[in-house]
Design a protein that fits this description.
The structure is a single chain. The longest helix is centred in the last third of the chain and has 20 residues. This protein has eleven helices and seven strands. A hairpin with an 8-residue loop joins strand 1 and strand 2. The protein is globular. The strands form two sheets. A five-stranded mixed barrel has the order 1-2-3-5-4. The chain has a two-stranded antiparallel ribbon with strand order 6-7. It has one domain. The protein is α+β, with helices and mostly antiparallel strands.
C-alpha cells in the first residue's frame, strides 16, 4: 500500500490552499539538543481526512519565524529542491508533551515538515562517531543536492546549514530546518511597501554559506556548477511567483492563523524578489579567482565529482 502524499493541484500555489494541517493524536518529543523543541507527529489535511501523514513539527516562538519555516518549505517545492514539504500545524497543548511554558494558551501553532525517514545503516555508521561530522559533509558534498543546496541557502540567506539539518534517506539527501533564514523578514513584513526595507531585504546576505564552503573546500570548479543550479531555480521563478500570488488569498476565520498565513505570503513574495539577485550574490561569495579567506576551512586538490 502506497503512503498517502500531500495534495497537489494546478496552477501552482493552489496545492495547499491554505497549507493547514491538524495534529492527529499525541506527538513524540524528539531526542537530542535542538534549538527549538520538535516532535514526531501524525497530521491530517482537510483534503485527506481519512489519511494521516508523518511530520516533524516544531514550536517556534515568533509568528515571523513560523512563517519563514513554512514559506521556505513551500518555496522549495516550487523550485524542485530536496526540502520536505511544509505546512502550518494546529495542535492542542495536550497533544505536544513537554512544550515550553512560553507558549501560552491551549491551542498552539506549529511549523510542520514532511517526515523523511533516515537510512538506518548510515545513521548507525555516524552515531557517536568522532568523525561523524566530516563523514556527513563528505557524503553530502558528493551528491547533487549539495550544489542545489548551496544556491538555495544563498537565496534564503540561511547561515544554519550544519550537519544535523541534512538527512540521508537511503537514496538522496534532504535539507531541512530554515527557521533562521531571512533575518530581515520581520522588518520587511511590517513595512514591505517601504523602499528602504524592501531593498535591504532583497540585498541582504548571510554572514556565511556553510554548505557552499564545505563544497568548495573539497572540490574545484564548483562555482559554475552552483550557478547552473541558480539558473534552474531562476527559470522556475514563475512557479514561485504564482505561489506567492495565490498565497495572498489564503485566509482563515481565526485571526491568529490568518495573521500567520499573511506572513507566509509576504515571505514567499520576498523569496521571489530575491531570485533575480541570486547569481550576483553567489558571484560575490564564490566568484572566479580567490574567494574570501574566511570561506574556506582548508584546501583541496580534488577535482569535482562526476
Amino acid at each position: 500500500m502506497s503512503r498517502p502524499s500531500l495534495p497537489d493541484a494546478a496552477p501552482s500555489g493552489k496545492a495547499l490552499a491554505p497549507p493547514i494541517f491538524y495534529l492527529a493524536g499525541v506527538g513524540a518529543l524528539r531526542e537530542g539538543d535542538h534549538t527549538h523543541d520538535a516532535w514526531h507527529a501524525r497530521v491530517v489535511h482537510p483534503d485527506l481526512p481519512s489519511h494521516s501523514l508523518g511530520m516533524i513539527v516544531k514550536a517556534l516562538r515568533s509568528p515571523v519565524t513560523l512563517a519563514v519555516e513554512v514559506a521556505c518549505g513551500l518555496a522549495a517545492k516550487e523550485l524542485r529542491l530536496n526540502v520536505p514539504h511544509s505546512g502550518l500545524v494546529i495542535a492542542h497543548r495536550d497533544q505536544i508533551p513537554g512544550i515550553d511554558d512560553e507558549h501560552i494558551g491551549e491551542r498552539v501553532l506549529l511549523a510542520g515538515s514532511h517526515y523523511q525517514r533516515p537510512d538506518a545503516l548510515f545513521a548507525e555508521a555516524v552515531a557517536d562517531s568522532p568523525a561523524a561530522e566530516e563523514l556527513i559533509w563528505s557524503k553530502v558534498c558528493e551528491s547533487p543536492v549539495a550544489r542545489q543546496g548551496a544556491a538555495w541557502d544563498e537565496l534564503i540567506a540561511n547561515p544554519d546549514r550544519h550537519c544535523e539539518n541534512v538527512l540521508f534517506d537511503g537514496s538522496t539527501w534532504w535539507l531541512f530546518d530554515h527557521d533562521q533564514a531571512l533575518p530581515p523578514a520581520a522588518t520587511y513584513a511590517s513595512s514591505e511597501n517601504d523602499a528602504e526595507a524592501r531593498n535591504h531585504a532583497i540585498a541582504y546576505s548571510a554572514k556565511e554559506n556553510l554548505l557552499a564552503a564545505e563544497l568548495m573546500r573539497r572540490y574545484r570548479g564548483q562555482y559554475e556548477v552552483i550557478q547552473t543550479h541558480t539558473k534552474k531555480m531562476t527559470d522556475a521563478g514563475k512557479r514561485l511567483q504564482a505561489l506567492a500570488r495565490f498565497s495572498r488569498d489564503w485566509t482563515h476565520p481565526d485571526a491568529e492563523i490568518r495573521a500567520v498565513l499573511e506572513l507566509v505570503g509576504i515571505v514567499l513574495g520576498l523569496i521571489h524578489l530575491r531570485l533575480p539577485a541570486l547569481a550576483e550574490k553567489l558571484h560575490l561569495r564564490l566568484g572566479p579567482g580567490t574567494p574570501p579567506a574566511d570561506l574556506f576551512h582548508g584546501s583541496s586538490s580534488r577535482t569535482k565529482p562526476s
